[in-house]
Amino acid sequence: MLLIEIGAAFGQEKNDMKTKFSVVITAALTLAVGIGSISCKKKQPAPADAAAKGPARMDVTRAPFGTLPDGTAVDIYTLTNKNGLKARIMTYGAILVSLEVPDKAGVFGDIVLGYDTLDGYVKNNPYFGAIVGRYGNRIAKGRFTLGGVTYKLATNNGENHLHGGLKGFDKVVWEAEPRMEEDGVGLKLSYLSKDGEEGYPGNLEVKVHYSLTNDNELRIAYEAEADKATPVNLTHHSYFNLSAGARDILGHELMLAADRYTPVDKGLIPTGKLAPVKGTPMDFTAPMTIGSRIAKVDGGYDHNYVLNKPEVATGLAARLADPPSGRVMEIYTTEPGIQFYSGNFLDGTITGKGGRVYAKHFGLCLETQHFPDSPNHPDFPSTIVYPGRVLKSLTIHKFYAK
Ligand code: GLA
Questions:
Q1: Distance from the CA of 143 to the CA of which of 225, 359, 376, 402 falls in 20 to 30 A?
Q2: pLDDT, tens digit, for every residue of 174-185?
């Protein structure tokens, strides 16, 4: 295996951490990524074996992932923690391309939907793995008033604005800075969203910091600063399938730490009410199988839940489990809401990684966020970022198997 140390490209981080870790490009990985064929279910050493051989090598590697139609090169970074968990993130859309975590037998599987190649993401991506912004979720009629000015945003979901518009943060190329960190490995991504982009006011500097910790957490920390007041609602849009594609998500068990949700109209815009979930198919306060009541929910689950935790504290939002594989994911967040989307619009027309056909409910999203259409609901927690104030938000995905 050819190991090449990355020099200047990694900046001063490298010098700081050189004694602790080495940052490497693995030629074999470069080749594997280049031909776009990371397997979905790779047998890794069982924990006992791994202990005998010592921990996995913790590193961050970089490889080319293709070029966009305009010629821009896209890179993909592979983060590996000391337990062998791997997250692959590309600079296009800050997209989490794959996430390999072990099941109860120690077998690693890729638990997010996506494509093998960049081309798939560019041609047709229903936000697989992406960072969504400037405003994740919907703004009614793409319109809001701020400081006495009415702004008109791009409309891309019927008459409404969805997930940042026609070219949201999921479709731009981010600057990337890989990092070796005290408790794991990371990748800092940054993007400057210009004044007027998709109709939003002000320049917005956005930073998204993914970390894969040695406690088996994927942490996503967001920061944003604006030079004019603007609405901002950043989220991560992975479609999870904890069976690693063995079956759909209807048998997954979900717990949402939310006694209330925001009911919506036909266009999925909140009516403004916060309704109790108790006694309805929306209730996930105790773990429930997703498929058990989905038929009673018109169109399937695609709703924002109001989290019970205090507004900005990092509290438990969700626990998702796939009993046959034993994989569990817990989500903690500083955000006040979480959109539970049960993959209702997947319809079998997308063939994803490893040739898998993504039929309805083949993956689900748990998007930590502020509530949809907040700029038009003064009673909802505010999404406005003012100049001089830095927006900070954190979401943690914790993985284990039982
Ligand atoms: C979000 C929305 C859904 C859908 C998906 C992407 O979860 O709430 O309605 O638009 O994104 O397909």
A1: 225
A2: 999 999 999 999
